[in-house]
Design brief:
Length: about 350
């Protein structure tokens, strides 16, 4: 007897996690494939998590009231406008489950965060990818024009993973004014802390002005808690109520809740680390450009190399040098900003590559 299976699941692509680097004797390996924070947790965050460990025989408090309140205070909003999840990827899934019916469309730019099409399909919705512009940005005009009566959720990833591009405030406002008010527009700000562009759209400001805007934030990137899984949405209270209904019960652990609270208390210290990573990103961008590599300006904690048909060759070179990067066949390579030592190693390989490969696009 065969095990029953949902139709089409055999064609369902699994989520691909950033690879670990290949070990090479005598060479320090660096994982730069998953946009992780290279710093270990802050001592205060580690202490808060450790203090919660003896109680892991108990279920977490499902409403996570203290953390929800702390996040609401942080942004000057009501706790009724905050929903938590096991990483912002789970919150993104909650949004799709809470808003779409089977066959409705979930729109996003492409290429963008690769979970969007997977989450949409898993929820029974239809992915609606809209190509990025030639310079790796969102084509918000094309996205607005492509909205159909079935389009119920639109993800706008700012800065965009993997290209690092930003959408401007005026552009997003024009977009929000042209999209029907009953479409939920999700501003996914997973990398917002690294975004120093003065003209950028700011999710919380858009949320204050437009009822159909949901903002996604994560503790995984700038706050270095990827392993604990904690993210949240800021949205209209009606949507938040529905997100809580479809959330996986007890998805946010007590350790994650404590780590989140301690991180909000330590924003000054975390900012110092963010500043270092942003400075490293600028250094890397200038050096890669000088080495002749097709690097795009980025406002995130990673850089995108537009290597097209030479992607595999360049990715192999990084791998041979014990550096794991994220390669998208025939498109390009995303490299996470790491410690200064890791970044120097990237630059060494990039300079070799510039000499070895055919002139890059
Ligand atoms: N949004 C974007 C744009 C991302 O790149 C990621 C992580 N790669 C996420 C959301 C999800 O992060 P997390 O679930 O760890 O919060």
């Amino acid at each position: 007897m065969t095990i029953p299976q949902r139709a089409g699941l055999e064609n369902f692509p699994p989520y691909r996690q950033g690879k670990a680097p290949r070990g090479i004797d005598g060479v320090t390996a660096y994982k730069l494939s998953a946009n992780e924070n290279p710093y270990p947790p802050l001592p205060s965050v580690l202490a808060a998590v450790t203090a919660a460990v003896p109680s892991i025989n108990l279920y977490p408090e499902m409403a996570a009231e203290e953390l929800t309140l702390a996040i609401a205070d942080r942004w000057g909003i009501s706790p009724d406008n905050v929903a938590l999840g096991a990483g912002s990827v789970e919150v993104a899934s909650q949004i799709i489950h809470a808003v779409t019916n089977p066959g409705d469309s979930v729109m996003f730019a492409w290429r963008s965060f690769e979970a969007y099409p997977l989450l949409a399909t898993a929820a029974g919705a239809t992915p609606q990818p809209i190509p990025l512009t030639a310079d790796g940005g969102h084509d918000l005009v094309a996205m607005a024009a492509a909205v159909t009566p079935r389009t119920k959720v639109i993800f706008v990833c700012n800065p965009n993973n993997p290209t690092g591009t930003v959408v401007g405030a005026a552009e997003v406002e024009a977009f929000l004014q042209s999209v029907p008010a009953d479409v939920v527009v999700v501003l996914d700000e997973a990398y917002v802390h690294f975004n120093t562009d003065p003209g950028t759209a700011v999710g919380i400001e858009m949320f204050r002005k437009y009822r159909n805007v949901a903002v996604l934030h994560t503790f995984s990137k700038a706050y270095g808690l990827a392993g604990l899984r904690l993210g949240y949405a800021i949205a209209a209270a009606e949507l938040i109520t529905n997100l809580r209904k479809v959330a996986v019960p007890f998805g946010v652990t007590a350790l994650a809740q404590q780590a989140g609270l301690a991180s909000l208390e330590a924003e000054g210290e975390l900012q110092e680390r963010i500043d270092v990573l942003v400075a490293e990103r600028r250094r890397m961008y200038a050096a890669l450009l000088a080495a002749g590599l097709p690097v795009l300006p980025s406002e995130a904690n990673f850089l995108w190399l537009n290597t097209g048909g030479q992607t595999a060759a360049l990715a192999a070179l990084f791998e041979e040098n014990a550096l794991s990067v994220r390669a998208f066949a025939d498109e390009g390579i995303r490299i996470t900003i790491g410690t200064a030592e890791a970044n120097d190693r990237v630059l060494d390989v990039a300079r070799q590559a510039a000499g070895l490969l055919a002139p890059l696009p």
